[in-house]
Design a protein that fits this description.
Blueprint lengths: L3 H10 L4 H9 L1 H34 L5 H13 L2 H11 L6 H26 L2 H9 L4 H12 L1 H17 L12 H10 L4 H26 L24 H28 L3 H10 L3 H32 L3 H9 L8 H15 L7 H24 L4 H9 L4 H12 L1 H17 L2 H6 L7 H9 L4 H34 L1
Helix pairs in contact: 1-11, 1-16, 2-11, 3-4, 3-6, 3-9, 3-10, 4-6, 4-12, 4-23, 5-6, 5-12, 6-9, 6-17, 6-20, 7-8, 9-11, 9-17, 10-11, 12-23, 13-23, 14-15, 14-17, 14-20, 14-23, 16-17, 17-20, 18-19, 20-23, 22-23
């Protein structure tokens, strides 16, 4: 199911003939825009890695004041839909509408992907590794680079891969910027030229780049074993004192949060404060759509997150418990759907449903399946990184006591992998809430989401009317992050006790 959009896209790309597909790919503008997207990815991805790893380490391994609050605030940028951030940055300053603005939006919006995945891995690491390094004379910095960072490789590389792929196919984050990327050409092929074949042909380039990134990530990750060393009960790691670094670290956290969350949220208040009485009246009239849109968005996010977890679990288990080319191919194939722009993936699934599964065409179920398929890579990375730290001997012990494979997985492995499930749920839920293109294509008639209503109003420069939908989007995603992160805290408290 996950590779279905890829197959349909390849079929659509050559529907207009081989020459038409090659002409669309060889167009000078396409190659220039692809270069722009690659440059954005090259600049934004390392920044996401630095922000994500640093934030996770300071929160999970130091006595940072207000650790739990900072953890929630560092997840918060993921809850702000990219198109909201795009309009906010474009409104703030004209200088933010070029290359550095585009790279900045990606960096400050998507570093929580790396943060969540690395934080989960840090919580699952065996404290004996760091304690042994310290007993051999290594200080905190040496322990991090020589012991901790290598253990974070699966989560870190997986997060960077997702950020890079997102930067290559992102459209919503650049919707209000004057900087043109590869996705803009793809959207233009469909929206202006009404050519699904042309859009699909251009998507073949993003698939090719995705394959290169997948190969590179696999080579860097290797086949190293990351399971815990000890087989005893889990315990908390010793936290470092920050000392004179406390204020600089807190200041750095405040700056990152102010840019990533403060700009879009502050701009929402600014839109309200500068709106005329007529605009505010229109905004008040539009609030009748607020509750139905909120319910639809929430149900869609929850259902898609659940389905993506179901899709990801067997792949993640296979990738951690088995080796071989077939398993590698299955695990790598899940990322291919994310190499497609949301619009192309949605069109491909709509085409498949209209021809081969008419009972799904135009239904809410198809939209849920589409969102789950497009964002299943997040769930695979999060669950795989967590399962990789769990000792296989625990499952073996359960089986030796009479439990079957599924029973051992459910009763032993799944509870230990709960942080990975939580991180996967946060990521998928937040991205589904902020996904605009898929909903615009597949949302049934007479239904609307918070994202589609925001776009409908902001496209007519009715920012006062659009602001309530953006505000509810942020509050809804923040509430979900709060519940899930508080669940993190309860589990951690039990372990520390």
């Amino acid at each position: 199911m996950v590779v279905l959009p890829i197959g349909v896209t390849v079929f659509q790309a050559f529907q207009g003939g081989f020459s038409a597909a090659t002409h669309a790919i060889r167009a000078a503008s396409s190659l220039t825009l692809l270069r722009n997207s690659v440059l954005v990815a090259l600049l934004a991805t390392p920044i996401c890695g630095v922000f994500g790893v640093a934030g996770a380490w300071f929160i999970e391994r130091t006595r940072l004041p207000g650790r739990w609050l900072w953890a929630l605030l560092l997840v918060a940028p993921l809850t702000v839909p990219p198109f909201v951030t795009s309009y906010a940055w474009a409104t703030l300053s004209v200088s933010l509408q070029g290359f550095f603005g585009a790279a900045g939006i990606i960096a400050f919006s998507y570093f929580p992907i790396v943060f969540l995945l690395v934080a989960v891995s840090l919580r699952g690491m065996d404290p004996a590794l760091e304690e042994t390094a310290q007993s051999l004379g290594l200080n905190a910095r040496q322990t991090f680079f020589r012991v901790v960072l290598p253990q974070l490789r699966p989560a870190l590389l997986g997060g960077l891969l997702l950020v890079a792929l997102d930067a290559l196919v992102e459209f919503d984050a650049f919707v209000a910027l004057k900087f043109q990327t590869f996705s803009l050409d793809i959207y233009a092929q469909y929206q202006l030229g009404f050519s699904a074949s042309g859009a699909a042909a251009l998507s073949l380039l993003s698939i090719a780049v995705c394959l290169v990134l997948l190969f590179g990530e696999a080579r860097l990750r290797g086949n190293v074993n990351y399971t815990r060393v000890s087989h005893g009960s889990r315990r908390a790691s010793t936290r470092y004192e920050l000392g004179r670094w406390k204020l600089p670290v807190l200041a750095a956290f405040a700056v990152v949060v102010a840019i990533s969350v403060g700009i879009p949220v502050g701009m929402l208040f600014d839109w309200f404060s500068q709106s005329s009485h007529a605009a505010l009246s229109m905004a008040s009239a539009n609030t009748r759509y607020l509750l139905p849109a909120t319910v639809t968005s929430m149900v869609l996010g929850l259902c898609a997150a659940l389905v993506s977890l179901i899709f990801a679990l067997p792949i993640a288990v296979l990738a951690n418990r088995n080796r071989g080319p077939v398993v590698t191919l299955l695990e790598r194939a899940t990322y291919l759907s994310y190499a497609l722009p949301d619009l192309v993936g949605a069109i491909a699934l709509s085409y498949a449903a209209s021809h081969y599964a008419r009972f799904l065409y135009g239904t809410f179920v198809l939209l849920v399946l589409a969102e789950a398929i497009l964002f299943v890579p997040f769930a695979v990375v999060a669950i795989r990184a967590t399962l990789g730290q769990i000792e296989p001997a625990l499952e073996d012990s359960a089986r030796s006591l009479g439990s079957g494979a599924l029973t051992a997985l459910w009763r032993v492995t799944a509870p230990l992998a709960r942080p990975g499930f939580v991180a996967a749920g946060v990521l998928v839920f937040a991205f589904v809430l902020g996904d605009l293109a898929t909903a615009q294509v597949l949302l049934p008639l007479n239904m609307y989401t918070l994202g589609t209503e925001f776009e409908a109003n902001s496209s007519t420069v009715a920012f006062a009317a659009a602001a309530p939908f953006a505000a509810v989007l942020i509050v809804l995603a923040m509430a979900a992050a709060y519940v899930l992160m508080s669940r993190f805290g309860k589990l951690r408290a039990l372990e520390e006790g």
